Amino acid sequence: MAQAQKTAIQPTRAEDYPEWYQQVIRAADLAESSPVRGCMVIKPWGYRLWENMQRALDDMFKATGHQNAYFPLFIPMSFLEKEAEHVEGFAKECAVVTHHRLEPDPNGGLRPAGELEEPLIVRPTSETIIGATYAKWVQSYRDLPILINQWANVVRWEMRTRMFLRTAEFLWQEGHTVHATSQEAVAETEQMINVYADFAENWMAMPVIIGSKTPAERFPGAVETLSIEAMMQDRKALQAGTSHFLGQNFSKAQEIMFQAENGERQYAWTTSWGVSTRLVGALIMTHSDDDGLVLPPRLAPDQIVILPIYRDEQQRTEVLRHVEALKNELSEKTFRGSAIRVVIDDRDVRGGEKKWHHVKRGVPIRLEVGPKDIEKGSVFVGRRDQPKSIGMSREEFVATVSDILEEMQQGLFDRAAQLRKDNTCTLSSESDFRDFFTASDENQVHGGFAICHFADEQSIEPLLKELKVTIRCVPSSDNNEEGVCFATGKPAGKKAVFAKAY
Amino acid sequence: MAQAQKTAIQPTRAEDYPEWYQQVIRAADLAESSPVRGCMVIKPWGYRLWENMQRALDDMFKATGHQNAYFPLFIPMSFLEKEAEHVEGFAKECAVVTHHRLEPDPNGGLRPAGELEEPLIVRPTSETIIGATYAKWVQSYRDLPILINQWANVVRWEMRTRMFLRTAEFLWQEGHTVHATSQEAVAETEQMINVYADFAENWMAMPVIIGSKTPAERFPGAVETLSIEAMMQDRKALQAGTSHFLGQNFSKAQEIMFQAENGERQYAWTTSWGVSTRLVGALIMTHSDDDGLVLPPRLAPDQIVILPIYRDEQQRTEVLRHVEALKNELSEKTFRGSAIRVVIDDRDVRGGEKKWHHVKRGVPIRLEVGPKDIEKGSVFVGRRDQPKSIGMSREEFVATVSDILEEMQQGLFDRAAQLRKDNTCTLSSESDFRDFFTASDENQVHGGFAICHFADEQSIEPLLKELKVTIRCVPSSDNNEEGVCFATGKPAGKKAVFAKAY
Hints:
2 copies of one chain form a homodimer.
Chain A: H1 17-27, E1 31-33, E2 40-42, H2 44-63, E3 67-68, E4 74-76, H3 77-81, H4 84-90, E5 96-104, E6 110-122, H5 127-137, E7 146-155, E8 169-179, H6 182-202, E9 209-212, E10 224-231, E11 237-245, H7 249-254, E12 257-259, E13 265-267, E14 269-276, H8 278-287, E15 304-308, H9 313-331, E16 334-335, E17 338-339, E18 342-344, H10 351-361, E19 365-369, H11 371-376, E20 378-383, E21 390-393, H12 394-422, E22 424-426, H13 430-436, E23 449-454, H14 457-467, E24 470-475, E25 483-484, E26 491-492, E27 494-499
Parallel strand pairs in A: 3-7, 15-18, 15-19, 22-23
Antiparallel strand pairs in A: 1-2, 4-6, 5-6, 7-8, 8-14, 9-10, 9-24, 10-11, 11-14, 12-13, 16-17, 19-20, 20-21, 23-27, 24-27, 25-26
């Protein structure tokens, strides 16, 4: 029996996908759990990844006319009560501040004191507190639109947490806009889901499906929720971003009214949209392999790491001088409009250990350079997307480095798109649907994405519950063909994507 | 009797300085109070200012070897208890989370439910929660130093709040570092106060005094606190940043231990340092005047605003084409290493109103351009630091724009330095000290900064309390001259800066 190749991550994806995910995070030094239940510590390598995501998204928000602002962390309890569906959606997972100081406890230690007149909720999302402010800002149609985004932390007291994917506290951005007409607000909602899809595909190299959520899956209080859905390597779906058309629901709850050009007082139309540190989880699960993290070059904190190789102090001086020059030369090249990010790792660590350090952290390109390479004018190139390192002339590497990064970025996207294609089926009967979502091998890997016509959500709910499948979205494109519901046989105007999901 | 010149801000600084401050914030659209007690809403113009500060500081932190990370918002109550002075310092102003959901209240509305086993504190600062994490990271001297910064929101339940200067929630950065030796930690503490001073003087154009805090004014739990102190226009002092040498106090409380090269297990040495959105308040009070906000060009969100002037659609087309070209030309010029930030304001608003909009928001340069200017090849230049606009050839303006911004940046610094010089006295007797800090005119403006030898804090405390004066710091430079305490006559080795303070 052939021995399985040793991998840097144990267990492998095939052996135990959820545990593999945790081990990739640990091996890549992205984050760790904290002493506070459900809250994580984002470590420097993970945070740099998030910063790169933030920077790219922030530029896209500004290019579409949005400005950043900052609103309070706390929401008075009474504000949440104003929108009935909204409070229903969030009441069960709120961190509640009830006191404003600590005092010595006669039994030892401290105890809360100074009870607040009204409890404060740590924001799970900010529609209500931002809406109350907008109500003051909006008087006339001239004050519209309001196009504002906030980068913030939010808290949702989840019972089962997983790093990046679902944590009690997470980092995100939330856009909140106000418009004079329904059409404008709908256009904004669509624009922002397209911005997210653009970011997912062109930065994260993660193909996504844009669609609308069915009523049961909508954001609490929204008229329409658009989402982007991606397939992870275990064929489950992950919702990576949402954009909500809130109609006049929140403006009625918060009294956001304006005087129209014709003099009439009207309720405004609002939207909200957000992505979070969950995207880091999506990135990990889309590209990483059994040796650790794999990063699309465009988001990688370091795109190239140079590993100088030498045996003594004299060689060290020579090699370091050489790699400094190489680093400077590479840093002057660009990849997709930004200077290439190159570092030298001259830590006093064994060569193999050092190499694997960077493999596990997903650095796209490793360059080993020793005295012999300098003599030959070559570099030893390790691409994270290829198993073996290869020798290459230094000149050729420098000349083609942008193309190599481009090939890697595109390659990751193509591989993910291929996986999705291979695991997406159009199904038209309940029995096919059952088969598709019934675990078919010892790893419990189910079918993937099923595209099916369906008539209404309620009538198929028991089946979905039984199979632990959800309706991910009703895709926005290529979805006008009439058909019949796969389960009930009723006439159905739309197809949906069905999948097991994170 | 001559009529006083009408100013854009009412009241003026001389009439009512605290109210003037609030009105500048309102007129410049920087922030407003929120429905949550003591929490503010930072509006887009204020947030862009903060973003520019963040970006500059973040670059300086990275240039000195620090990395960003993110730690939990919540701190278990028991963590605070571990460092006695620390909890003493913060227990009275903690927002305490005691429940994790809301449930319907039988009397209507909602009520907190799901009581936590251990209350959680919303971080007032993160030494304890970060220290608990570092204790796991640090095993050997090879793991040191740890040089990490976090951008975050913090909450201190202050009873009297003022926008930017003292708010219940504020935004800040907190650096937390761990070192193998006391010397290294002290060097880090000093390095970071120097970074803050560099930022204050070279970006904010705000001269500062670097010094150490006396024991009573130290950060709770610190061995030594260094601060930068600036003089506001009402001659009060504002502490603008602090850097703390924590000795082994927190490493003992949190068990941050490492194995030294000689094999011994030792407690590590830690530091922490921070600046906050308070800096925005400092910026306002250092430079603004009775017409509103004045911004140092280096931090201004927009450095130049072009105001096109036209009477009809045909002129509009011509003028807009011209100012677009001018904008592009100016955007290619740089000021202190960054591209100049230029915008065109073509809103449909009366000319005077539009001009004052930008005056009040502190845009450094306004350029009015109409058909006659185009004909003559001129621009009408309004500098925020000069009362009258002047005509200038377009060519000359473009050629000298960087110099003009430089002159403005330096001019603001010089003016602030002159104010401080004019209002700083070296005093050696208690009666002089009393006179200096006794209000001398109807606006209750006191003397400013008094530099005095002092022997010990305790013996002068009653006097300081009576006069509402505090010891700001013991300056780090030029402070080795022996003398006698201004109040007690005892021998004194050091001088301190005394002032009323924010």
